[in-house]
Design brief:
The structure is a homodimer. Chain A is α+β, with helices and mostly antiparallel strands. Helix content of chain A is 34%, strand content 22%.
């Protein structure tokens, strides 16, 4: 990630050194290698769990994007530079916008292709999304998301809510991140509890309690009583629920101690306990799952389990992995496709680690071996050595110039390439580990670097968590 | 790829079955698996040759995109839906557009990050690009490109032109495509030849000869004589060059037989012969490289080697892989970064094969094993079996329902999942290959499917070429 620079145009007409665009982060090659390894882990875990890859187009009809009213201000709309008059009349029915998440496009994809899909349908999707928001750390105008969802037709079994949590627990068990804490709640539990308390404006109260961090206990109580007609007792009851956190062993008891009963509460609590139990074995020093009954994702379309995830030391960027169960996002009026899913914010997770230098690659290139070039005339022979190594999966370059060997070794050093190969005048070969300067005879048909050097490795600086 | 459909809105208000948007192709899961395997091969070959991955943001300043005048009409511009007045004034200096290729963004990335890169810099880039063109087969509004480029500072050695051809020869040797024919030429060769003929308007003549396919020999001759002031002899000389095709053994002799001499001609011819020689060993039944002296890419910024590639039976979609050497695309006024690169049109290559059903995956999911569920109470035990298989890299799902085994087997069949795992009442396990119905005892800690079944396989119907 390029640091901000004061320098800009150098005054040479329209040819000048370009500068970054705020909110559109790009990575340097070593950072991109880390991002690729993170994406490889995501893909591998998702596929091991039987999720099929889907990519959707970058654009959706604007009217689809605006169905969720609260995001309308953030949408980028598209226009052809040489659009004709009809196209430019601002007709929303044909206007296109860039998608702002991967859930709305996926719901559309399911409706459009339902006849070609098998349900329950398990898909993952890793793509950029765009929002015209004011950029800050953790909020970008272009950002990569990695989503998994399971959708079924008409009904969706609750065990899939457990399963989505297990998939992300597997993911976090393998990603090179500071410790993360996944917070789980269940909107049925909240709704049942509120109804048990006699609260009528359930949705509105959820939205108020969701602001607890911002407006505090007194603010929530005041808004519930003054604006939503709740009693002080109901307001304090709602706050008491939001203060509960716990694990599978303690959560049911803590909720029961509040003395509220309702069938929806029992139903939601049972699912919550299942999610906690289903991920208990996957907890580690760097990954914890807790019930946090303050989590509601109040402005979203969730109807059951809800997830948020925070990274230790980086709580200020917000939740890096959020989702939940949605019963009616995808419907064509005849058939409804309920689903459950979760979305990892890849850019939101990695950008703060990159900008602090806490996550780096051992080299800035895939190349493991540089074949040194004794003279330009021997380029074909050196290319043959490179081909032999590549055929056995060893990333290899031939030196760009037949300069002095010292200069060729520096070419490798600057990129972190660990090995330099030296063809000998007698037709034999030597390979040198330029870190130790150890050099030995080698055969291009059989030599291989140690496994640890075959590909660049991601290195995490442990200081990350203490940042 | 969804076929065109007559059906559209079902009249249920704004909730209706969505339909595809012309020019924005999307793939069904089995097609996406094929695309992923193609992208995996591209990445693997590019990395084996030491190219580092770069991703650039989807947007560039509009003024950057419009520096190549001829593509201006195809650019999509962006606007925030709730843009303020200043933003909406149409100021091109701050306006953003979607990139229409990966070369212009890469040239900008090199200038912006030159201080952080090592030169010669080798990068690959696999991303979508967007053009507001009228869609047809082979021409899309959103399409995936896979580019490799090598750029150096101030000067770039000619052997990199050979190297780029070798990389793509390696790629085509591994892609599951109908036979392809890569056509190579060299603009120095053409320029030198034209100058040797006494032609002054070299660029203009290249553009006219580039239209040979469309306007014919007589049209080229007429345009050269009438519009460009060439002599009939010069026009026929230019046409004679454009008719030459050949390989490394014959091309120099054929050019020499035309009796034209010029230092640039010799220089370009030497590079062309090197490219042909450097790829001769990589030719096969399905991949050929030929010199085709009619190829000029007349409207582009190339200054040396130029490439085009056509797929047998699909010549009508145009070149699927084009590129060449460019000496002055990236310059900040002080330093120039000459480069050579090539771009494979992934969407243009795959879409015609998908729409004809000629390239498919053996299943529509990564899942290799479905663990059958004897009863919902045994879900945790079945999940433990799935976890054990996943830990050894075997993609596994647990059956979504504890329905009759026949129904669970059909769940696997419909997705092409080859194996169903049956936990037995006595705690032992059986696994069935549902294609052969062979069933045997198995241990979740050690059983593995045959390598061929571990992942979905891409199948190409050989009829492709004869389409």
């Amino acid at each position: 990630m390029r640091r901000s620079r004061g320098e800009g145009c150098d005054g040479a007409g329209d040819v000048s050194k370009p500068t970054p665009i705020s909110g559109f982060p790009e990575w340097l090659p070593a950072e991109r290698i880390v991002e690729q390894q993170v994406l490889d882990i995501l893909r591998e875990v998702f596929e091991l769990h039987g999720f099929a890859s889907v990519q959707t187009r970058a654009v959706e009809p604007l009217e689809q994007l605006l169905r969720k009213g609260e995001t309308s201000k953030e949408v980028y709309t598209l226009r052809r530079l040489q659009a004709d008059a009809a196209e430019d009349s601002g007709d929303q029915a044909s206007a296109l916008g860039l998608h702002f998440d991967l859930t709305v496009p996926f719901a559309r994809y399911v409706l459009e292709n339902a006849g070609h899909l098998q349900f329950p349908f398990r898909r993952y999707q890793i793509q950029p999304a765009w929002r015209g928001e004011r950029p800050q750390e953790g909020r970008y105008r272009e950002f990569v998301q990695a989503d998994v969802d399971i959708v079924d037709r008409d009904t969706l079994s609750v065990h899939h809510e457990v399963e989505i949590a297990q998939v992300m627990a597997d993911v976090f068990g393998r990603l090179p991140l500071p410790p993360v804490r996944m917070q789980v709640n269940n909107r049925r539990l909240i709704e049942g509890y509120y109804r048990g308390l006699g609260i009528v404006e359930v949705e509105a109260v959820m939205r108020v309690v969701d602001k607890l961090d911002k407006i505090g206990r007194a603010g929530v109580e005041k808004a519930m009583v003054d604006d939503l007609g709740a009693s002080t007792e109901q307001a304090r009851g709602a706050l008491a629920l939001a203060e509960i956190t716990g694990d599978h062993a303690t959560i049911a008891e803590q909720v029961a101690a509040l003395g509220v009963t309702h069938p929806l509460l029992d139903e939601g609590l049972a699912v919550l306990v299942s999610v906690l139990e289903g991920t208990a074995a996957l907890r580690s020093d760097t990954f914890t799952v807790v019930a946090d009954l303050a989590i509601a994702r109040g402005l979203d379309y969730y109807t059951g389990t809800v997830f948020e995830t925070r990274m230790q030391g980086f709580e200020h960027v917000g939740s890096i992995c959020s989702g939940g169960r949605y019963d009616s996002l995808a419907t064509d009026g005849r058939t409804t496709y309920p689903g459950v899913g979760i979305s990892l914010g890849v850019t939101r997770t990695l950008a703060p680690l990159f900008s602090r230098g806490l996550l780096t690659a051992s080299r800035s290139t895939p190349t493991a071996v540089l074949v040194a070039l004794p003279s330009e005339e021997e380029r074909a022979a050196c290319t043959a050595v490179a081909s032999a190594l590549r055929r056995r999966g060893i990333a290899t370059e031939v030196s760009p110039t037949a300069s002095k060997y010292g200069k060729q070794i520096r070419y490798a050093e600057r990129r972190g390439i660990p090995f330099v190969w030296f063809p000998q005048p007698d037709g034999s070969h030597q390979v040198r580990d330029i870190r130790s300067a150890e050099q030995a005879a080698a055969d291009p048909a059989s030599w291989a670097p140690p496994d640890a050097d075959l590909r660049p490795a991601t290195t995490r600086t442990a200081a990350a968590a203490a940042d």
